[in-house]
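Hi R.,

As promised, here are both runs. First protein below:
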Amino acid sequence: MRSWRKRASPEPAAASNAAAGARYGSAQERERLKGDAQETARQRLVVTSALFAMVFVAIALRMGYVSLLRDGEEPTQRVAARGGSIQSERADIVDRQGAVLATSVPVVSAFVNPRLLIDAPDAARKIATALPDLKYEDVLAKLEEDKTFVWIKRGLSPREHDRVNRLGIPGLEFQAEERRIYPQGTAAAHILGYASIDNLGLAGVERYFDQQLHSGETVQLAIDLRLQRMIEREIARAVQKFSAIGATAIVMDATNGEILAMASLPTYDPNSAKTITNEALFNRATLGVYEQGSTFKIFNTAMALDTGRVTLSSVFDATSPIRIDRFTINDDHAQRRPLTVPELFKYSSNIASAKMAVEMGSETQKAFFDKIGFLRPLTTQLTELAAPLYPRHWMKINTMTIAFGHGISVTPLHLVTGAAAMINGGILNPPSLVKRPPGEANGRRVIQAKTSVMMRQLLRLNAVEGTGKNADVKGYEVGGKTGTAEKPTRGGYRQKALISSFVGAFPMNDPKFVILVSLDEPKGIPETYGYATAGWVAAPSVKAIIEGIVSLYGILPGDLKEGLPPIQIASTPVSSPVQSPQFVPASARLRATHDQRKALPVRPGPNQAAAAPHGGVRRLASE
């Protein structure tokens, strides 16, 4: 047997190098592999960069969609399908005592993305069953829209929210929102206005203070809710009794222009914005411009007395009617003799007033009405303000008729504001729906103080002996003036369509309250002997309101004596609690006349602690 032995390689180093070359390749091969790796890394970087760019483009497109193309009804903040919360809140509106008139409450609204629905008809059927006030056809139409967002119902009640939530419909979600509510219902509706479903003010102080309310700042009004309800009840009673088509009433603080109450009929419930009609929304107190009839004799007489050319003893002949052009001016309470200024006021003589105005001159009359603001819109915290109507060319015939309130039309708020200036010492204060800081003086003098004293005497005379006797309240020094105007129509006046108004004030020795009641087209009844004039239909309502005021604020006849500090209507600042309001009677004030009189609320408001009465103080009876 032959055995063979394997021979060793003659060049072991070369053999080793050859093996390595076979495993890793040559130097050129190594360079090639290195280049491939770098190219792969570059490709990966490009792909990654492209992905990042696509993400940024998608974000930019979404931002553009949200800001420019998004459905206007889609909420800017979606909340998960089981509810959520939002941060903003519209602040409250309260009365002078802190009673809440308007507030916001959290609610949930339902919306759907129709593109996520599996079975639109089935979903519509379920939703209509859960929300019976919605019609199946209407819901189905919404669910079949080619949109990504559709409202189903805004402002769900908790029970409705629970029923809809249990449906479990894909694409049906909820949005947490706020809903504006008005706890007092129709009270002060024309002052408050109302807000939209998106909490934007659409009328009244809601609209005027929209930005302030959105910033969270509470608005405190000058009105007293109790007095507001009182005047609303009274004019509603008068409208029903005399079959009027509408009415308005205003109570103003004569000393500073604060509006303590203001009402207009017909009215509306701001909680039901969808049911508000244009007729109900119309605020007669600030938008209605009417010829105010003989109430304008207040201003015509004040104008004449203020010039110094007419005194209370001046005489104007009212023996015969005035015929000018095709018009004849008559007196309803004709005396057919010369009348002094108090007599022309007491008997409400159109003839004597017209002659007084002519004696003053057209330019003087126009300048006076401009000075007291009757030729321009008022300035107050509402957007619903009408401009007066007056003749472009103020001729002699206009001067005569304007003397007794025909040929010029102003709003009831103009009338109250002007009347306050005639009796408060001659200062015209802009009307204010919000409380004014104590001592704030922003009025301007329009007549002399002595003229104001004479006007108070004339107004008191009219309530005692003249056409305003039905407004007098014994012991409270009431004064006032009637005004009955026929409503104009094309080419003349409608004789049976009257605006019957009475503007009153008390106490006339130191006026605090100015009250206006105006009825639109009242009808005479047997009790008024068929008359629908102001003395019969409006003056009694002013009397009822005055009686309510003295009862509400606990004012006694002895509290109105001359020499006492003026009455003040107290209020409760919303920022801090106060002690139980108290009223100081005349007997106590005589011992300390430097104290101011305050007609205060009858019971503590929210967060108020009742204080024990101290010596000489009478606590008011509860409501």
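And here is the second one, sequence first, then its structure tokens:
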Amino acid sequence: MKLKVYKKENGKFLSVPCESDGVFKNDNTQVYVEQVSMGAVTAIYVSAKSIVGFDSESAIRLVIESIDGLESYVTGSSTYTDYNCWYAPVFGTDIRKINPITQSVIWKTKENYGALLSVCDKEYKSEMTGCEDGLAIDVFDNNSDEFTVPKSLVTLCVTGENPFVLNKKAVLAGMKLLGKKGGTRTDRPFPEIFEYLGWCSWDAFQIRVSEENLVSKCKEFKEKNIPVRWAILDDMWADCIDLDTAEYDNFESMMKIMKASSLNSFEASHKRFPKGLKHAIKRINEYGIKVGIWHPTTGYWKGITPDTEFFEKYKSELVLNTAGWYQPKFEENTFFEDFYAYLKSCGCEFLKVDNQSSFHFNRNMAPIGKLASSLHNNIESAAKRYFDNTVINCMGLATENMWARPESAITRCSDDFQPENKEWFRKHILQCTFNCLFIGEIMWCDYDMWWTDDNQALKNSLLRAISGGPIYVSDTLARSKRDVLMPLILEDGKILRCDRPAIPTLDCMFKNPTEKGVYKVQNICGNSGIIAVYNLTDNKVCGTVSPADVFDLPGDGFIMYEHFTKEVYSLSKEDMVNIELENDEECRLFVIIPKSQITFIGLTEKFISPKTYERLNDNTFLLKEEGRFAFVSDDTVAK
């Protein structure tokens, strides 16, 4: 790959001329670029030294001037310029216009496909952005006064005929080169607890979460026979004085209170949990519901409250960050060890760890790669000891987070759920499914909570069904609907989960589906394919559905069953069925099953029907529970 090299000085990027193959020099700087071939993957390393030092936000810039035969691309780009915790797809044809803080690029040419991934090594990371000369790869460590850049893996490039395997190949190569044992999704077992339906307190109660509200919600689940098996005590449960005393009149003012809160102890709010966290969890457990606890990596949103006994006890374990408040140190310390031991003693069984990409509070404290590695090693060593690393990672999609997590299996892959919001859903489905093209190669993906009774409930439920990740809702009191949830689960609450993170179909990958056409999401379960079809526009849309839309689906002949219309098609792999969606309220779900003498569809009231039975032999099928089922037979079947 042909690259140009630049160095940032006084806010300007200055060219560093190429002296020989991989060697770039000017009067004060030497840069070495090494490209290592690993089959289809090219790993790009950078090292450098300078007598005038390096800019902490862009030490070295590599520029790709063009991609031969480029037709279109989709990027994974940060949704915020100052806080790269969430990413979303951006579509384009001109690499000079790629958004800042881009983590991944997949492109299409006339002949094949290609991909670039940013990487974070032990100290330095990279981010991509468009620039006047092409596609820039900025290499930096967020740490000032550096005069050398140690040899660092900064980018992985891969090309091939199948776009669905590019990031997998790149991630496997990257983990090997970084010395990570495993590190890919298939090396991270999906936690057993998340195989069942869950609930989260956030949208239900927010700043007013309390023991009595939580128990009232559990009673509702019991009365409605909704088999919730786990619950997250989300933000606002903790001992933070402002959360109990502050007044607010809208969501925005509540969020300001939340973001200003700091932690006074490991305990729950004394006002809203008067008998303590252990007592509250015990009452929830009486309803057959296991409990997990939310917390941010910083202790709380503004760290630890100074001038308290708690602060004095852990003072040696805290650090003053560049924002001016105290948070737990990154390197191994007793803070998280003691915190998790306390939560375990109260009956907590898993964690949701938030605010993970918050390294903008730690500029110039240490290289960003070192900070990220220390943070995740510290948290996960304690989480493994007390909770077998049963963790939902959150607000942590930044490159430094993705390459640093040792063992935890699940990460949120989209911005927060917003009830009663059609525009949010359009953004949400694209964030989740496109982010899974990269994020889903490293971890299992969590599509976030949702409500069963808002105007997007059907679309949200179908998206969770095909997601391949955990499923949990956040309905407030008296608003949970059993009939909306039951198509996703069995009577005992076990979710009918697909086998991998859901991703777009190839014909939807390089165009913006909010502008025209249907949007199709694909997954597999066993040897069957699943396709969900959406209309993300304000108009009627048309498209096609085919067994060939499902990547890696085995077989040549199929029965395709549509869940909502009950239509059945007999198709070869390349056959297509035309579909129309009149408006954005309509959606479709196609189950694609390899054809045999008896093609069993399964329980028809469930979305992922192939997960509702076991095949014992060619003509014998065992349903997992009672219900109406369907099958297709070549022969007449006697009643």
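A quick note on the second one: The chain has a mean pLDDT of 96. Let me know what you think.

Best,
J.
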